Amino acid sequence: MKPKSLVNIDDYDKDDIMRIIDTACKFKKNPNRQLLKGKVCAALFFEPSTRTRLSFETAISRLEGRIVGFSDTATSSATKGESLKDTIMMVSNYTDLIIMRHHLEGSARYASEVSPIPIINAGDGSNQHPTQTMLDIFSIYETQKTLQNLTITIVGDLKYGRAVHSLIEGLSHFEPTFNFVAPEELKIPEKHKVFCDKKSIKYREFTEFSLESINDTDILYMTRVQRERFTDLMEYEKVKNIYILKNDMLKNSRDNLKILHPLPRVKEISQDVDENPKAYYFEQARNGIYARQAVICDLLGIEVNS
Ligand code: CP
Are residues 169 and 274 in the same domain? Predict the structure, then answer.
């Protein structure tokens, strides 16, 4: 039987997600435990990363596991033409779990099909980023004290943003209302609207980033325009700075509002927002350690006590 992997956020159902959040809460109280002693994890990053890679490394180090891998494809034998299958088969000889980021959509699913050990998708092209969703949902729960019936406004690159695509699916268990704010060129793809319709999830689409959409929301999820996904950089230039959140735009926002962003930020959140208590994106990134510790232990069948 194939080991359980986390490739798409729907590999985890509502109960699984709640279990991860519960475990992440335990790790936030105490992230330093000996739970991965004797385990070796691989981190194969075929695409650049700061937060995902370093928070996975921190997560594993604080649990006293070891980590091997590469952060630059140029230093791996992929540059000599080694296939993804062979890379996965080799690395699974050496390690207990593989964390992988790759530019090709579907690459993590393929890796999970050939791998005898669990695979964690750390982002596959524009498709999915399920551990980002775990930390996003953890951050939403932490700040709102509930996940039910929240209004979530997602702003920016809804076409290429894999964090957005996973988040919509992950939150679908909790009766959200979504506001999708994007320019025509970066609108949410049709398949995600079909998904919402099937699940009877309410959503509205806007091309204007209005004060009304900021004032009527519980979570404002800002995103970067994903330059690396554009084939025509002139198209990127047209939309790159289309929405910029400034501190004075938050004056009439709800008391419970929190601003999230998967990061990295380019210009879509002005620096003057950072000091606003409603800005939560740096704490959100910190939560990546605890959510990822929870996912790793879950996939390796390691029990986490309070
Ligand atoms: N949020 C995120 O995936 O950031 P990195 O690309 O830095 O890992």
Answer: yes
In the annotation, is 129 catalytic? Answer: yes
pTM (2 d.p.): 0.96
- Verify that 241 and 200 share a domain, yes or no: yes
The active-site residue out of 39, 129, 162, 173 is 129
- Active-site residue, 101 included: yes
Range of the domain at 208: 130-285
CA-to-CA dists, residue 57 to 19, 252, 289, angstroms: 22, 40, 9
The residues near 283 (Cβ < 8 Å, ≥ 6 apart) are 139
Question: Looking at the structure, do residues 243 and 176 belong to the same domain, yes or no?
Answer: yes
Lookup: tokens for 18: 């709640």
**Same domain assignment for residues 255 and 143:** yes
Taking only the tens place, the pLDDT of each residue in 89-134 is 999 999 999 999 999 999 999 999 999 999 999 999 999 999 999 9
Q: Is 87 a catalytic residue?
A: no
Residues 154 and 73 in one domain: no
Q: Label the pairing between strands 119-124 and 202-206.
A: unpaired
Rounded Cα distance between 187 and 302, Å, is: 40
Which one, of 1, 10, 277, lies nearest residue 134 by Cα? Answer: 10
Q: What's the gap in Å between 132 CA and the centre of ligand 1? A: 8
Task: Count structural domains, the chain.
Answer: 2
Task: Please report whether residue 2 resides in a domain.
Answer: no
